Q: What sequence folds into this?
């Protein structure tokens, strides 16, 4: 048994993969079946017990590579928004109610290295889309293997971990609102045992709205050393220097009169531009991954990783400085017996992360730090012990069971003001998170699956110590049970695949965001959330022998969310039965890729999002919208050389719709709306060697 078969990806595509036939990543692609891999082992497409999907590098390249938003949204059950350039937020199988500025409820990994830190935060916006080989998504709570999460798991394969081919790419793009993007990618196979990759990118944008400029530099490198037939040592390193302005939310009247404006002054609070509201983030993430095949049955993986973040945020009400340090390990031992009569596998492991957070807040004097307001230190520790077993009772029937033990603690100390000096601890008692799943394959083209799993998500550091500069030691962890059924069918010739999932997640102690009068935020437990949903994914590929049209690839991702509050009391109001804030009832995303002769491709992306409740009382809704994007690419070889080039052009919001993306929820003073850009364009070129 080869080592790289036993321990590889979290999951490979449950749908389709694109095989590159020309120098450009987005032209003349062909649909091919792929080997499906869950976290520990290879499985056939129909045997997979999870609701899962992979976003390939080709899918990312087919969209605009300025942002991951469109590519990620091609997965049903997942929703990514970009409030302004560089300001991401993301939700999986759960509301955006906990994710006003980032990622909550979800664990994110770079191979075996967690990008989600000990405090529960994930800086997804630091990544360069061009340096990603694949984004693997497993939907639904899986605290049994990946620590505290209630939405799901995202595992990213960086460029260089998936391939050892020699290549050199250089890309330049220019677009509306002062957009400039430059990318350099190098991959080299030094010898049969060692290869490396290096990626560099720079992105600049003035933004559509006032006070929404972006500057972002990323440097990423991967190294693979197969030092003998059984062992591999890998290194991942990322440095990002990013700053982006935050324009703030507008009232409906302001949004209708001038959607380009930043949040203006209101009462005693100055405006966003006046205060130079900006995020400055310098982060380094690095880690080593060692994989070893001990014998035919046993293999072992261990990773050591760490990160350092220098974070600075002049905000409306204060000027915040954060120093964040994290260090941890993830390791597991895997056994597979290879028995053809009763295949059995078993894994046991742990993940432990320690974080140190030094947070200081000052008055914000028009973008300059003034008098001190509050200084706090918060040290966070997380540990996850896990075990998993899988038995193939028959070639068609798979049973999988796993159990995780999750513990989390926060030690805090307030050092300023001196009169408020205090120390304490917040301990979230150890929690057991089981998962039981099975799949049954009726024949070569149809299968069903089912699972029961427990979700568990502790408050993040950003929620315990939010922008109101106080430490909330009364927040409880979210938890609940998820019940799911799935059905998958594919055509015998692999021309199309349909995947349907229905689920119900009953969550207790759900965490919601509330905005104070001065614009600062705080978090409370909202009681119960009843999350019922259905997801439908369709992938199809059709090939012609025409002289001009070569193939058509069509994908659909449909999500229906019947999300309702249970017993949720806020003051004198009870919001029981209301729609959960920030969750659309349904979304529909379609992509249509035409491959023509002469290495020309044309991609169309359509996203329909229904109305979105913006407050817990369901008194204010964001309008539904239809977003259409398009991109055309042409690739060609340079005569009598090993070089080739690609030219591309694209447009976003072709219908020129006026819509708000990344709305502020439960916003004080009615400042809910963040206007998205109207119709805009970009062009670019890419050189290949």
A:
């Amino acid at each position: 048994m080869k080592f790289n078969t036993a321990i590889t990806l979290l999951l490979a595509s449950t749908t389709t993969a694109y095989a590159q036939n020309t120098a450009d990543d987005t032209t003349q692609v062909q649909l091919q079946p792929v080997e499906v891999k869950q976290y520990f082992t290879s499985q056939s497409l129909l045997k997979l017990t999870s609701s899962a999907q992979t976003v390939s590098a080709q899918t990312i390249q087919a969209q605009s590579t300025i942002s991951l938003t469109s590519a990620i949204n091609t997965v049903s059950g997942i929703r990514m928004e970009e409030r302004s350039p560089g300001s991401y937020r993301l939700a999986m199988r759960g509301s955006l109610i906990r994710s006003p500025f980032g990622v909550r409820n979800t664990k994110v990994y770079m191979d075996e290295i967690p990008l989600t830190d000990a405090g529960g935060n994930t800086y997804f916006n630091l990544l360069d889309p061009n340096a990603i080989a694949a984004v693997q998504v497993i939907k639904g709570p899986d605290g049994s293997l990946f620590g505290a999460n209630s939405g799901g798991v995202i595992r990213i394969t960086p460029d260089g971990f998936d391939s050892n081919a020699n290549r050199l790419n250089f890309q330049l793009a220019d677009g509306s609102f002062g957009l400039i993007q430059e990318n350099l990618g190098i991959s080299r196979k030094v010898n049969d045992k060692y290869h490396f990759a290096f990626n560099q990118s720079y992105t600049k944008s003035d933004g559509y709205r006032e006070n929404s400029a972006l500057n972002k530099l990323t440097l990423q490198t991967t190294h693979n050393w197969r030092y003998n037939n059984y062992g591999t040592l890998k290194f991942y390193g990322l440095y990002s220097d990013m700053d982006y302005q935050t324009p703030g939310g507008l009232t409906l009247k302001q949004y209708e009169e001038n959607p380009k404006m930043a949040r203006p002054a209101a009462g005693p609070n100055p405006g966003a531009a006046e205060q130079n509201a900006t995020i400055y983030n310098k982060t380094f993430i690095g880690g080593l991954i060692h994989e070893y095949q001990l014998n035919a049955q046993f293999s072992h993986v261990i990773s050591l990783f760490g990160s350092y973040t220098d974070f600075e945020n002049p905000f409306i009400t204060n000027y915040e400085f954060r120093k964040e340090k994290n260090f941890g390990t993830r390791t597991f031992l895997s056994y597979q017996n290879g028995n053809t009569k009763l295949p059995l596998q078993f894994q046991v492991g742990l993940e432990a992360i320690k974080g140190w957070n030094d947070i200081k807040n000052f008055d914000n004097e028009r973008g300059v730090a003034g008098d001190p307001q509050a200084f706090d230190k918060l040290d966070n520790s997380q540990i996850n012990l896990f075990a998993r077993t899988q038995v193939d009772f028959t070639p068609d029937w798979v049973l999988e069971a796993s159990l995780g033990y999750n513990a989390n603690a926060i030690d805090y100390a307030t050092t300023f003001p001196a009169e408020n000096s205090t120390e304490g601890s917040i301990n979230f008692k150890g929690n057991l998170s089981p998962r039981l799943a099975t799949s049954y394959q009726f024949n070569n083209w149809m299968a069903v699956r089912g699972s029961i799993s427990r979700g568990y998500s502790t408050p993040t550091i950003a929620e315990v110590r939010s922008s109101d500069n106080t430490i909330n030691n009364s927040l409880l962890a979210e938890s609940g049970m998820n019940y799911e059924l799935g059905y998958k069918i594919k055509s015998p010739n692999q021309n199309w695949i349909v995947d349907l999932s229905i689920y119900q997640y009953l969550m207790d102690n759900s965490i919601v965001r509330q905005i104070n009068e001065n614009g600062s935020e705080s978090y409370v437990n909202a009681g119960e959330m009843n999350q019922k949903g259905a997801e439908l994914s369709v992938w199809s590929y059709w090939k012609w022998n025409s002289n001009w049209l070569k193939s058509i690839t069509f994908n659909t991702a449909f999500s229906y969310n019947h999300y309702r509050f249970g017993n949720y009391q806020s003051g004198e109001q009870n919001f029981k039965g209301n729609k959960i804030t920030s969750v659309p009832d349904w979304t529909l995303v379609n992509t249509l890729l035409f491959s023509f002769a002469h290495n020309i491709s044309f991609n169309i992306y359509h996203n329909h999002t229904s109305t979105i409740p913006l407050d817990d009382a369901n008194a204010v809704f964001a309008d539904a919208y239809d977003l259409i994007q398009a991109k055309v690419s042409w690739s060609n070889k340079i005569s009598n050389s090993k070089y080739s080039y690609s030219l591309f052009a694209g447009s976003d919001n072709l219908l020129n719709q006026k819509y708000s993306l990344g709305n502020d929820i439960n916003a004080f003073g009615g400042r809910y709306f963040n206007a998205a850009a109207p119709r805009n364009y970009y062009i670019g070129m890419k050189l290949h060697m």
